[in-house]
């Protein structure tokens, strides 16, 4: 699955909850030294090929941009020399790393290139890509670890000259390559060594490269996200080499903010296309938690009218074949089970207080009986007490009572609340919470949808780094789940833009939820998950 941004593309948002580390190539990604390298290689090889032509009578063919991209870019210096010479059927002895730059050996030519490069750096200094530096700083400020990887033995000197050494927790360069006997790009060794030093597995790290060999290394290393930076009009080739995402500049990337949009506590639009979802889940296996009212069904006048559509049922059924799916509802568990009508899902009713699922999955709170009794008492009091208020509706459940005021005149809602408060004084085992045009009387017990989701992750052995919990919900009680998953998963609010929320992403309505579930299924089916 590949996504191209660049001109006309929409900005891709990196989610720091998905990636624990970001690994950057140096030349052409962080520093503007790729052009210096390219020009230096040309200087070296054009002079050498000219001199060789004069000496041997072979026709002179200059070193081209394509030669640079195909044989030299991203490779350790001597490997680059050898690869280019081989492409021209020239065989030279390898020589030794300390060969003088005058010697006609692979090492000698490599050392000549290095001397020319250093001369240019000394004269011209090193410029950085400001957008790359800004992105690295933002990632670091959000707790993402950073590493710099380069085949060049000069990497540290280049970073120092550019004044950006402190941007990286770890630096792996050409000296490490030799010291640790690692293979150069396109082998993934350098990048994997950086990920190891950061203590992060490759699938939880993103990597950024501008060279075809570097992108291929990222793909071979199974990095969570391989970003190709196209500075040379080779977007297609970068994608073919294995880039998940190709940008022309890192300024096209932004971060999903910790509290939704950068400018407030609202959520970013949830990408609904398969491609964007692939990038988001970044080779993790999702575990999906779905709220019912307002998420799987639109909010309607009365609870019994919230019937699941056949399309939505089919979408949930399809997803459940590919990954664990739980319905986490404020409704009574039996009620929501019957409404959803799918046997092999996990159901958590009464805002997560009552959980059951395939096999022996069941949670029974110690004080369950005490709360059931209290709920029954409250429901019995609420019915008669609210009978005088037109439109008020009591919905008793096993572990909560909902008092709906959707049909109550605005002026009378405070009367409903007064009744609820009065009943609560007599039933101190319960506490009041609010939802959409509803007061809920729930057990006075430290438990909510967030705790239920965390419990489920543990009980189902899904509390693992390769699992990405995804929670979709629309109401205040879903905020507990968004909060609980903040640093380990993805919360998706169903509702209008600008809603204050702990969710990272947002879908407009239940139709968008249906499209998202379908796209997620597509992605998982395509991946064979
Ligand atoms: O957690 P959920 O699955 O979203 O359940 C929350 C409450 O949903 C129901 O009430 C809400 O939906 C009704 C039907 O659309 C609507 O008439 C009502 O105004 C909403 O508050 C359900 O009846 C409650 O028991 C749930 O707690």
TrEMBL record:
The keyword Metal-binding applies. Its cofactor is Mg(2+). InterPro entries: B-phosphoglucomutase_hydrolase, HAD-like_sf, HAD-SF_hydro_IA, HAD-SF_hydro_IIB, HAD_sf, OTSB-like, PGP-like_dom2, Trehalose_PPase. The keyword Magnesium applies. CDD domains: HAD_TPP. It comes from the Bacteria. Keywords: Hydrolase, Magnesium, Metal-binding. Pathway: Glycan biosynthesis; trehalose biosynthesis. One of its GO terms (molecular function) is trehalose-phosphatase activity. It catalyses: alpha,alpha-trehalose 6-phosphate + H2O = alpha,alpha-trehalose + phosphate. One of its GO terms (biological process) is trehalose biosynthetic process. Its EC number is 3.1.3.12. Removes the phosphate from trehalose 6-phosphate to produce free trehalose. PANTHER family: TREHALOSE 6-PHOSPHATE PHOSPHATASE. Belongs to the HAD-like hydrolase superfamily. CbbY/CbbZ/Gph/YieH family. Belongs to the trehalose phosphatase family. This is Trehalose 6-phosphate phosphatase. It comes from Lutibaculum baratangense AMV1.
